[in-house]
Amino acid sequence: MILKKLLVSAGALIGIWAIYGPMASAFARKKPKRWGELVLTFDDGPDEIVTPKVLDVLKRKNLKGIFFLTGTAIKGREHIVRRIAKEGHEIGVHGQSHINHLWQSPSRTKRDVQEGYDSIVNCGVVPIYYRGPYGAYNTMTLLQCKKLGLQVLHWDGIHGDWEINPVGKLAYSLNHVHMSGGVVVLHDGRMGKGQIGANEKMVEELEMFLILREKLVA
Questions:
Q1: pTM, 2 dp
Q2: Cys-Cys crosslink for 71: which of 79, 95, 96, 153, Cβ 3.0 to 4.6 Å?
Q3: What are phi and psi of 7, to 5 degrees?
């Protein structure tokens, strides 16, 4: 009898967690509304070296992107946040501490979204998007985004650019998946398990992809 009650309780807890975490993530990951155009997005920045290089590439190609910034990366780099906005790019919240919301309590989640939002606003910029680190969300994530007026924007393709790959591999992957458009996610910052130097390599591959795309689309 006791075992049965324990199993029932465990099942109930799993069910509650599934609604709170995985189901919320599935809802947030639905097809982005901006499908049909090429949307370049960059996570985990700003980085002192890489983010300016990305901005230079986008300026040369006359393209705009969306930068999902992590609060802890902003300190001391507020000038980069302001440059992103000044050059006409959009800015999104990527949390304060790059934590996986699938495993966070409602209070911890709410604080992470709010602090990440505040870190950007304190630079004189108002973010309009949100993307969860690791693509993870929970019910509180979505509620807090709604409260702050943030639109959740997931991605259509993710390409392992946080690892150092053979020359041309990332550019080929981008071309294969996104030649006709879609929401691309790349990483100008290095959070989690990103390899040292991988984000700088990403900039080279991004420009390679954009040059190839120009030739094929023209």
A1: 0.87
A2: 96
A3: -65, -40
Q: Give the other-Cβ count within 10 Å of 93's Cβ.
A: 29
Q: Closest Cα to residue 117, out of 154, 151, 150, 77?
A: 150
Query: Rounded to whole angstroms, how far apart are CA atoms 135 and 71?
Result: 17
The CB density around residue 141, as the number of other CB atoms within 10 Å, is 28
CB-based contacts of 35, cutoff 8 Å, min separation 6? 156, 181, 182, 183
CA dihedral 101, 103, 106, 107 (to 10 degrees): -90
Residue 122 and residue 96 in contact, taking contact as beta carbons nearer than 8 Å: no
Low-confidence residues of the chain: pLDDT under 70 = 1-22, 24-28, 31-36, 192-194, 217-218
Model pLDDT, residue 22: 63
Could you tell me the domains of the chain? 2-217 (3.20.20.370)
